[in-house]
Amino acid sequence: MCVHGTRSGHTQRGVVLYAAMSDVLLERRRDVAKKLGVSESQVLKFERQGLLTRIELPGLRAVRYDARETAQLAEQWINAAKQKP
After folding, report:
1. Domain total for the chain?
2. How far from 55 is each of 4, 45, 62, 76, CA to CA, in Å?
3. 59: three-class secondary structure by DSSP
4. In the chain, which residues have pLDDT < 50?
5. CATH number, residue 30
C-alpha cells in the first residue's frame, strides 16, 4: 500500500506524517514499538504475521504504519487480557 501526497507535522514523539488523500495518521516503526511496548524487530514480526500493514512512501526508503491499525492491535491485547481469569 502506497500513500501519495503527504505532508509533515511535528509532535513531541517525533515526526508524524499525515496522508492528505485519506487523513490517515502514519507512524514510524520506532513509534509503533514504543506505543505497543515492544521492540522494533517485534513490529517487523507483526508485519510478517499480517497483524500490521506496511506502508511504503513513494520515493523514500521510509516505512510507516497506520495508527488506527496499531490502536486496534493494542485494544485486542487489552481485551484478551481482560478475559483471562
Report:
1. 1
2. 11, 15, 9, 21
3. coil
4. 1-21
5. 1.10.1660
